[in-house]
Design goal:
By secondary structure, the chain is an all-alpha fold. The protein has one domain. About 75% of the residues lie in helices and about 0% in strands. The chain has 4 helices and no strands. It has helices spanning about 10-30, 35-55, 65-85, 90-110. Helix 1 (about 10-30) packs antiparallel against helix 2. The longest helix has 24 residues, at about 65-85. It is elongated, with a radius of gyration of 14 Å.
Length: about 120
């Protein structure tokens, strides 16, 4: 399992920040419906906040807590994708599903240690 842990926590934070910003921009660029716009913008903001909490300068929070939040975020993204699909918001559902895949891939490849 440790063979896949290639990304340091600061790199993880930078990639997670990019994911959150992309998720916030997607509804405006791709023209999602109102429900998908609200969900994607809010979830994107949560991901950005999570990424900023993992930045080396933040100094607050533990690495194990960030690990747990990352797992919860991936599950939440899947649940949001299913909810938007049921609501008929296909574009938003696809965006959240893609974000869930990206977050899961990031979780699997991150080395969760305090120092790189």
């Amino acid at each position: 399992m440790t063979a896949f842990r290639l990304i340091s926590l600061p790199t993880h934070a930078a990639l997670e920040l990019a994911l959150g910003v992309a998720l916030m921009a997607a509804p405006f660029v791709l023209g999602f419906g109102s429900a998908a716009l609200v969900v994607c913008a809010l979830v994107g903001a949560l991901i950005v906040g999570l990424a900023l909490s993992a930045a080396p300068e933040a100094g607050s929070g533990s690495v194990s807590a960030h690990f747990a939040y990352d797992r919860g975020m991936a599950l939440g993204l899947v649940a949001g994708a299913v909810a938007l699909a049921v609501a008929g918001q296909a574009g938003g559902a696809l965006a959240l599903a893609a974000a869930a895949i990206a977050q899961t891939a990031l979780n699997v490849t991150t080395r969760y240690t305090a120092r790189a």
